[in-house]
Amino acid sequence: MTETLTIGEVARRSGVATSALRYYEDRGLIASERTGGNQRRYQRSVLRTVSVIKAAQQVGVSLDEIATALEGLPGGRSPTKADWSKLADGWRSSLDSRIQELEALRDDLSDCIGCGCLSLRSCALFNPADQAGEMGTGARYIVGDSRPEPAVNEPR
Ligand code: FES
Q: Is the pTM of this model over 0.70?
């Protein structure tokens, strides 16, 4: 019989909190089997999967993207070195595009340093591309329209 790991052992070996492991499992990123007492038991290979998840998150890959990539692995197995290489290649263009967006945001921030106006009319950070103007005329946020979430992933 293959040795399995408790959630505490996985947490200790991977450096990931048990709450995060349960969350990964709820999201379908990792899987466990249950004992008769309904306790989680993980295959040792889950440590590699957790490492891949953490590495991908560190470079800004979302859990949804990671889940999609892991679903593509045959039989839901843990990623091998070759799999990781393929996954990283797949995320490269998305990362390149985020880097360009962040560089543009950084350039906009340069104009805002020392300003602090957050002008609806001219501040590229508070109202990028005059998004509030699409809701109508006047002070849209003051009359109750919601400010959209920061558009980090939208093209500028
Ligand atoms: S804070 Fe004034 S232009 Fe952005």
A: no
Q: How many CB atoms lie within 10 A of CB 23?
A: 14
pLDDT in tens, 93-119: 888 888 888 888 888 888 787 787 877
Second-level CATH architecture of 1-79: Orthogonal Bundle (1.10)
Supply 148's token pair: 């959209």
Sketch the domain layout of the chain as residue ranges.
1-79, 92-156
Tell how far the Cα of 59 is from the centroid of ligand 1, in angstroms: 28
Query: How many angstroms separate the alpha carbon of residue 44 from the centre of ligand 1?
Result: 51
Residues having CB within 6 Å of any atom of ligand 1: 111-112, 115-119, 122-123, 125
